[in-house]
Amino acid sequence: MKKYLKFIQISFNNGLAYRVEYFVGTFRNLVILLVQLAVWKALLTAGPVTTGSGVVTLREMTTYVVISSMIGTLLTVDVIFNMNDRIRNGQIGMDLVKPVNFQTYTFCNMLGQNMFSFLFQLLPILVIGVIFVGIELPSIFNFLLFLVTLINAIVIMFQMNYALGLVAFWYMRGWQSTIVWILNRLFSGRYIPLWFFPPILVTISYFLPLRLMYFVPISIYLGTMAPLDCLYSILQQFAWMLVLYGMTRLMWRAAIKKLVIQGG
Amino acid sequence: MRTLRLSLRFYEATIKSMLEYRLTTLIDILIMIINFSVGYLSTWVLLSKFRSIQGWTLYEVFLLFNINMVASGISGFFFSEPMRTMEQMVQQGEFDMVLIRPMNPLVFTLIGRPNFSSIASLILGAGVFVLCFTHLAIHITMLKIVFLLAAILGAALIQAAILVIVGTISFWVVKNTATLSLLNCFNNFIDYPISIYCRGIQAFLTFVLPFAFVNFYPAHYFLDKAGGDLFFPVIQYGTPVVGIVFFLLAYQFWKVGVNKYESTGS
């Protein structure tokens, strides 16, 4: 346990080494947020809009966009890139020699990075969101549920990326992850809530874990999701976690058998 | 003339080597096409619900988006790979090689290093233009088509200038990926008509970093938009001129950078 805490700390400190990149990342997030705010303002100035699941107001959408932008700082991809590099350059051999669980180790790396992002990327957005934009605040119950679904989302995001990263044992080009990332942009509800989707795309989204990342937590935060749907979504999250856990275990076992490290 | 001939030779060689990895190249292009298509799909989702944004309808926004995609594709084909790797060239002293060639250093840095996945935006872009022209109820004259082509070239020069500026900064700043994403993030603004932003941002995108000239002003003219909210009405024809001027400025900056370059001497 102690060694894993150390890994988290090291990964957090690594963030400091990439200060400039983080600063730019924060700036970039703010630009994208600004664009999103302007888009929804232009779309909804005429008044609230009715969708299949109720009436959407500008203030609701503004909150949606700000929360989505904050979640975005925590759901990062670096895990895959890091794994791909390690597998490609053979560093994975060194990782295997260490008396640590590789999955836990990778997870700790992500946690450390997330803590750094929380302080230097998420908080700036929160401050700006509360002071300049004016976001809606949820009820305590909704907020707690939101936190649960958000933590689950972070875990699922990790598992998904980890599985995609493991593919590199067989196949070194990173296409599979690129495709998932492209789909994620649309189906997770990162930019456009699923309320506005035509039925066919909504149906597709039910078969993917992506909607559980942004759309579900934010809907719960806003209180637009019926209590039963909340429960159902959380169960779905746990189901995906289980499936992905089983899948990554199987993949890992097969990968280790197959792995050949050259030289030393 | 000699430069042109040499350049063609260089590109011929890279294209040949690229064809050796036909499948890889093809899949890269395919992924870029999927990537852009999802962008169009998002816009479609949004605008089939809302009909228009600040008076711009679905196919008008497609046209706006498309001009930038094609222009960035053209500039990316020639400039993105060399300018992204400038940082490495300077760090490892490889830029020495460029300086001792009997050729313009910028041209030599550029030639023979195309980014093939940029072709995706040309393929998809051609399709989307056809789609837009068939769905838009505008009167298309020969003059307008010529203007559109000139505007796309001007827009490509603006995007190229941005890449040259990023590459040139490598002469001073060792780690340069941050600059690229910093300048690139302004591109997010022009995914939508800039009239949705406050006046300050519009002015910034017009007079400081001329991203608005990449697609908003040419599309504004091409689509006969009512011109009430422009800084000056004449600005909507400006893209070709702004492209040349901005690129020349970037080139001057590049020359300053080259003069400053000191080899790492290893």
Concise summary:
Chain A is globular. Helices cover 74% and strands 2% of the residues of chain A.
List the helices and strands and how they pair.
The complex is a heterodimer of chains A (264) and B (266).
Chain A: H1 2-17, H2 19-44, E1 49-51, E2 54-56, H3 58-74, H4 78-88, H5 92-97, H6 102-133, H7 140-166, H8 175-187, H9 199-206, H10 215-222, H11 227-258
Antiparallel strand pairs in A: 1-2
Helix pairs in contact in A: 1-6, 2-3, 2-6, 3-6, 3-10, 4-7, 7-10, 7-11
Chain B: H1 2-20, H2 22-50, E1 52-53, E2 56-57, H3 58-84, H4 86-91, H5 95-99, H6 105-110, H7 119-135, H8 142-169, H9 177-184, H10 199-208, H11 216-222, H12 239-260
Antiparallel strand pairs in B: 1-2
Helix pairs in contact in B: 2-3, 2-7, 3-7, 3-8, 8-9, 8-12
Describe the fold and architecture.
The complex is a heterodimer of chains A (264) and B (266). Chain A is an all-alpha fold and 264 residues long. Helix content of chain A is 74%, strand content 2%. A two-stranded antiparallel ribbon of chain A has the order 1-2. Chain A is globular and about 65 Å long. In chain A, 40% of the residues are buried. The model of chain A has no long low-confidence stretch (mean pLDDT 89). Chain B has 266 residues and is an all-alpha fold. Chain B has one domain. The longest helix of chain B has 29 residues. The two termini of chain B are 35 Å apart.
DSSP strand (E) fraction of chain A?
under 5%
Order of helices and strands of chain B: HHEEHHHHHHHHHH
* Basic shape of chain B: globular
Helix content bin of chain A: over 70%
The overall average pLDDT of chain A, rounded, is 89
Taking Cα atoms only, what radius of gyration of chain A do you get, to the nearest Å? 20 Å
What's the story with the biggest beta sheet of chain B? 2 strands, antiparallel
User: What structural category do the secondary elements of chain B indicate?
Assistant: mainly alpha
Please report the total strand number of chain A as a whole number.
2
Low-confidence stretches of chain A: none
